[in-house]
Amino acid sequence: MSSIRHLIHGLVRDIGFPVRRLLPAAAARTVGPFVFFDHMGPVEFDSGTTEGDVRPHPHIGLATVTYLFSGAMMHRDSLGVVQRITPGAVNWMAAGRGIVHSERVPDDIRNDKVPVHGLQMWVALPKDQEQGEASFHHYAEDDMPRIDVGGADLHLLAGKAYSHESPVKTSSPTLYICGRIKAGGTLNLPADYSERAVYVVTGAATLDGEALEAGVLAILEPGVEVLLTAQSDTLFMVLGGEPIDGPRFVWWNFVASSKELIESAKLAWRAQDREVFGAIPGEVEWIPLPEK
């Protein structure tokens, strides 16, 4: 019996730079609390341009989780936070009932032609927190445990694994790991969480002997330990956790447990209601609400 429930190849979109979207997908809308998964880049941006900049836009009902492999982004939000996002750090922004943020490519990254490469995830907030206060937390690369397991170098970004625990504060049981493993190396993936998935960023691996290529998200069967074997030097992610507390509606940048909350957010953003979303100091641009 296969240990893989679904293989999701995702869709590549060009939004000024290449992005592969793995979640939500027809085969699986969520994995644990993760409701959105974008793999961006790697891409170099020209100096003297705004290519790659994400102008101010709103969120509700979710936490954004940004993790870079190379390059940098400059985060600004309506809480007044200004934070340079660098490789290996975790940046966890909980939108609650409303927040606005922008992510722009720093000038030095453009000028030095450093590729920007990373992942952005959305985690659904529990119902009792989706209308709470917004917050932003930055965790430096060294804040989170490094674990050597059978030759695999693991960076524990969130949750508990292999007798270690990440200091990253989550809203529900969540697992998020960045791993590197040399060709021929193996790693047992325990069944500590109800829902788990493996994503190969670069390289190639097998899961209990089944091939897993780069750019494909493998959603694992629950309750079984799975053996990952690297076919080449491989950079991979493990994500999952416990199921969210009920279905979620996802529309544009909004996630909510009810359509009414989505509709309310639409009206507030269209009207630029600062009591709901606030404003980012120093930013004058904003992304309009989509027509559809």
Count of distinct structural domains = 1
In DSSP terms (H or I, runs of 4 or more residues), the helix count works out at: 3
- Using only CA atoms, what is the Rg? 19 Å
Helical percentage:
under 10%
* Count of strand segments: 26
With strands numbered from the N-terminus, the spatial order across the biggest sheet is 1-22-19-24-17-14-13
Give the topology string: H per helix, E per strand: EEEEEEEEEEHEEEEEEEEEEEEEEEEHH
How far the N terminus sits from the C terminus, by CA atoms, comes to 42 Å
Poorly predicted tracts of residues: none
**CATH overall fold name:** Jelly Rolls
The top level CATH class name: Mainly Beta
Q: Output the CATH homologous superfamily.
A: Jelly Rolls
What's the architecture in CATH terms?
A: Sandwich
Chart the SSEs and their pairings.
Elements: E1 4-8, E2 11-14, E3 18-23, E4 34-43, E5 54-59, E6 62-70, E7 73-77, E8 82-85, E9 90-94, E10 99-104, H1 107-111, E11 116-124, E12 135-139, E13 146-149, E14 152-158, E15 160-161, E16 164-165, E17 174-181, E18 186-189, E19 195-202, E20 204-207, E21 210-213, E22 217-220, E23 226-230, E24 234-241, E25 249-251, E26 254-256, H2 259-270, H3 274-277
Antiparallel strand pairs: 1-22, 2-3, 3-4, 4-11, 5-10, 6-9, 6-11, 7-8, 7-10, 9-12, 13-14, 14-17, 15-16, 17-24, 18-23, 19-22, 19-24, 20-21, 20-23, 25-26
Q: Can you describe what's shown?
A:
It is a single chain. The protein is mainly beta and 292 residues long. It has one domain: Sandwich (Jelly Rolls), CATH 2.60.120. 7% of the residues lie in helices and 48% in strands. It has helices spanning 107-111, 259-270, 274-277; strands at 4-8, 11-14, 18-23, 34-43, 54-59, 62-70, 73-77, 82-85, 90-94, 99-104, 116-124, 135-139, 146-149, 152-158, 160-161, 164-165, 174-181, 186-189, 195-202, 204-207, 210-213, 217-220, 226-230, 234-241, 249-251, 254-256. It is globular and about 55 Å long.
